[in-house]
Design brief:
The structure holds 2 protein chains of 2 kinds.
Chain A: H1 2-22, H2 27-50, E1 54-60, E2 66-70
Helix pairs in contact in A: 1-2
Chain B: H1 12-26, E1 30-40, E2 47-52, E3 57-62, H2 64-67, E4 79-89, E5 94-104, H3 105-124, E6 142-146, H4 151-163, E7 168-173, H5 181-195, E8 200-205, H6 219-227, E9 232-236, H7 244-248, E10 251-253, H8 256-263, H9 267-302, H10 306-349, H11 353-392, H12 394-399, E11 404-407, E12 425-429, E13 434-438
Parallel strand pairs in B: 3-5, 6-7, 6-8, 8-9, 9-10
Antiparallel strand pairs in B: 1-2, 1-4, 2-3, 4-5, 11-12, 12-13
Classes of the chains: A alpha+beta, B alpha/beta.
Chain lengths: ~70, ~450
């Protein structure tokens, strides 16, 4: 889900900034857009920072079930 | 054209040309396989050789331009497979093959299989753009299907961590060459799809010979890539290598490193972009607020309170009142001035009745007095004159003995003797009666007596 919403959020943010910069918005709408924009900024930054650094290895067990374990690449 | 039995005789050239036309039309392009012999490469850069099999031999040539694309050297004994035009060389009456494309025969078979599979899958639509899935903008998890020990996996991990330090990678180790390779790759793709926790798959392998890439040219791998619900990015071999897997993948990267770069955005850049947008957003709202502030201030300053309105009206009224008062004052002043001026003028012009009346009275008195005096004096003079007159009365003088002599006939009183001549008639008036006489003598001088 997050994979689509990061891009969506970023696009929405870009659109909001464009709209805000065009300057035709009434104040109430501008404030609302600003709030939404800030939310998007927080959201995007959170996604950028929250992704946990992880390198795993996907293998199948003897019984055929999938096993994901840390991958040692050093 | 040919006219059998009619005695038509060909010239050598004519016949040769006819043969040439027939040959070249019939065998314009042919795929041919055979073994090279009598190989010669003169300074011109072209290659001349014979192609033979057990029963026959054909002269061949490959020109310099076509040789450029060769990935191997032509040599005697080499079995080749290639595309050629058949031509007839008229000066020597010999036909020969001009090669456009040549491959070693072993590779040629592989290549042919490749072309066939490519055509088959292409015809089925496995490479069509409509089936290409878009890559996620920012994948949360990336599955890497490749050898667990090769350089490719290290490169991908390195690039991924450089671009997005806290990215999440899942390595799915597989054999990338050898017979089990294609099955392992297929299983890996299916396993990742089954687990369904990744946003994108990188299918990678370092460079190798065409034979080493066999797994990536296999049909089952192509079908597994096509069936994958998760987008697949290939990074196989070197830039020049093209595999069936590359054609089937949603996005094709030239190398494993390039695949990692393609899949992962650069975190720094992304963060900067968001920061920029954040800044733009804040700037925009600040400007907007400032704008509205100013607008409200402006309108506020233009909005008049009732007190001010009343004050303004008051002031206006006062102004009008003052102007009115001034106007009135001025008018009164002018009027007064005019009036005083006129009254002065009037009073200056008015007769002084009392004085004049008194003067008249005085004059009346004077007049009366004067007339009385005048009358009195005249009476007196009359009385004196009467007296004088009485004294002067000739009758009385005549009574006292005096007489009056007058010339005749003009009756002028004679006072001087010189006024009469001798013998003039003279009348003498006496107290009683008159005498008429003539002058006898005249005695001159003053003395009369």
């Amino acid at each position: 889900m997050a994979k689509t919403t990061f891009e969506t959020a970023l696009k929405q943010l870009e659109i909001i900034v464009k709209e805000m910069e065009s300057g035709d918005l009434p104040l109430e709408q501008a404030l609302k857009k600003y709030e939404t924009g800030i939310e998007k900024v927080r959201y995007c930054m959170q996604i950028l920072d929250s992704t946990e650094k992880r390198i795993t290895q996907l293998t199948r067990d003897l019984d055929g079930s999938l096993v994901e374990a840390p991958f040692d690449h050093e | 054209m040919e006219q059998p039995k009619s005695g038509h005789i060909y010239t050598v050239s004519h016949l040769t040309r006819e043969i040439k036309t027939i040959l070249e039309d019939r065998f314009s392009f042919v795929w041919i396989t055979g073994e090279i012999s009598n190989y010669a490469a003169p300074a011109s850069g072209h290659s001349y050789f014979s192609l033979k099999d057990a029963q026959a031999v054909i002269n061949c040539v490959m020109f310099k331009n076509q040789k450029r694309s060769l990935k191997f050297a032509l040599e005697n004994g080499l079995k080749i497979f290639g595309l050629a035009r058949l031509t007839l060389y008229e000066p020597r009456g010999s036909y020969q093959l001009i090669f456009e494309h040549v491959e070693p025969e072993g590779a040629g078979a592989l290549q042919k299989a490749f072309e066939q599979l490519k055509k088959k899958l292409g015809d089925e639509g496995l490479f069509d753009a409509v089936h290409k899935q878009p890559l996620p903008y920012l994948p949360q998890k990336i599955s890497v299907i490749t050898s667990g020990t090769g350089a490719a996996v290290r490169d991908i991990i390195h690039i991924a961590q450089r671009r997005f330090p806290n990215c999440c990678l899942q390595i799915v180790p597989v054999m990338v060459q050898g017979d089990p390779a294609q099955n392992e790759i297929v299983c890996a793709i299916e396993a990742v799809n089954q687990q369904c926790s990744s946003d994108v798959i990188i299918l990678a392998r370092g460079g190798g010979a065409l034979e080493d890439l066999a797994a990536f040219n296999s049909e089952i791998v192509a079908r597994a890539i096509f069936a994958s619900k998760i987008p697949v990015v290939t990074g196989i071999g070197h830039e020049t290598d093209s595999t069936i897997a590359d054609f089937t993948a949603d996005v094709r990267a030239p190398t494993p490193s390039a695949a990692a770069e393609l899949v992962l955005p650069e975190k720094k850049q992304l963060a900067r972009h968001i920061t920029d947008l954040h800044f733009s957003l804040s700037t925009a709202i600040t400007q907007k607020l400032a704008f509205f502030h100013q607008k409200v201030d402006d309108l506020h300053s233009r909005l008049k309170s009732p007190v001010q309105v009343v004050a303004n009206v008051k002031q206006t009224i006062e102004t009008h009142f003052l102007r009115m008062q001034h106007a009135l004052d001025r008018q009164i002043f002018h009027g007064t001035e005019k009036l005083s001026w006129i009254s002065q003028a009037l009073s200056g012009a008015a007769p002084q009745l009392q004085t004049r009346t008194r003067q008249v009275a005085d004059l009346c008195n004077h007049l009366a007095i004067a007339i009385k005096t005048c009358i009195f004096e005249n009476k007196h003079q009359v009385r004196q004159a009467a007296a004088t007159l009485a004294a002067l009365d000739p009758a009385s003088v005549l009574k006292r003995g005096f007489s009056i002599a007058r010339t005749l006939p003009d009756k002028k009183v004679i006072l001087d003797a010189d006024t009469v001549a001798v013998q003039d008639r003279v009348e003498i008036i006496l107290s009683k009666g008159r005498i008429q006489t003539r002058v006898e003598k005249k005695i001159h001088g003053k003395d009369n007596i």
